[in-house]
Design brief:
Glutaredoxin, homodimer, alpha+beta, 8% strand, Glutathione S-transferase Yfyf (Class Pi), Chain A, domain 2, four-stranded mixed beta sheet
Chain lengths: 224, 224
């Protein structure tokens, strides 16, 4: 398997994806913990463009961007179940929805969490509309591609951890189980796995951090 | 090869990519011309999320997002040379730089083209810094992956058409051949191909359109 190092931090939903994928593939790896307020010179060396986690370093060569890393893991280690399906059309669909998550769903929830008042109301509406689209993709299914966990479950996996953190720290209502029955059930199904439970970041610690970030953004906006 | 339709418009750099890829693979296709000021109901049906070109419809099933379509084409038609390399590490690098183009290089040039005065000066500096990164990737090479055209040449191919259009319509200086010798040479190498020449959009028509778009954005910004 070679030497596998993961530059990671405990609070990053993007870094968390890589831990899940490596565990599903049974790949042994070493965690290189990054303090995002004081990044290491190695992180700057391995990811000079974005200077962000996650970075997977395989036998000394860095791979950056979480979606790119997920495909690399899937193509490199054939242990465990494949993350992406084999059929080109199913692969294209998975890549399309992964992009939709990273460019639309996750940013819209982040905006709703960081905003206030009327702006937050509008942002919440937009975020919930995006979740409606996700709900439609999950309708009638246990996981995104059917009965087993795959690429899209890992990509959307942040929902199972961070959605309630965003809700609790910004006064958004909890996910409505009547409007989102399949996302609600999927959250349970996804969370009920050893790889997920083993590495779940501490809820109270996340709440403390996310409250702080929201407060910081409110003060920064007020100072402008 | 089945029935292949491409929802396309003459002025879109993203749609142009798909034409190049299909030609390189020798895939026969039918162009479904979209007037972006009056989109067809079929486009809304096939791309309900983004309502944009390009959409590739293969045997009645739509595939959206140009990078996703490129990978679909590469995985579906094994005619012609592969677009992506075989090695997982080389594939990861190609995907990383494609994302960098779509999220950084292209948007930064677009911003420089649409802005004015001091804001444009700042935006130009940012765009040129991004092109420095691209120059470094091309250094010592004819094409992005070496001697033959591949995935990244198609992704960055817009530079060979649109860079001079953006420059001419917004008063930016032409690409400095001393600062960007390899991008300059690559532009010539990429343009010197039948698939490129056959489908090159009319320069005067592009200039007319891009001047109009810049003027529209200036008026909209002034009215705010």
């Amino acid at each position: 398997m070679g030497d596998v190092k993961l530059f990671w931090t405990w609070s990053s939903p993007y870094a968390q994806r890589i831990v899940w994928a490596l565990k599903l593939k049974g790949v042994e790896y070493e965690i290189m913990y990054e303090d995002l307020t004081n990044k290491s010179s190695l992180l700057f060396k391995y990811n000079p463009i974005h200077k962000q986690v996650p970075v997977l370093v395989h036998n000394g060569t860095p791979i950056c961007e979480s979606l790119v890393i997920l495909e690399y893991i899937d193509e490199t280690w054939k242990t465990g179940a494949p993350l992406l399906p084999e059929d080109p059309l199913a692969r294209a669909k998975a890549r399309f929805w992964a992009k939709f998550n990273d460019e639309q769903v996750l940013p819209s929830l982040k905006h709703a969490y960081l905003s206030h008042g009327l702006e937050q109301e509008k942002a919440k509406g937009h975020a919930l509309n995006n979740l409606d689209v996700v709900e439609k993709q999950l309708t009638g299914k246990k996981f995104f591609s059917g009965e087993t966990i795959g690429f899209l479950d890992i990509v959307f996996g942040w929902i199972a951890i961070y959605l309630e953190i965003l809700e609790e720290t910004s006064g958004m209502e909890p996910l409505d189980k009547e409007r989102f029955p399949f996302i609600s059930a999927w959250k349970e199904n996804f969370s009920d796995n050893t790889f997920f439970k083993e590495d779940r970041p501490d809820k109270e610690k996340l709440i403390t951090m996310y409250k702080g970030v929201r407060e910081y953004f409110r003060c920064t906006a007020a100072a402008k």
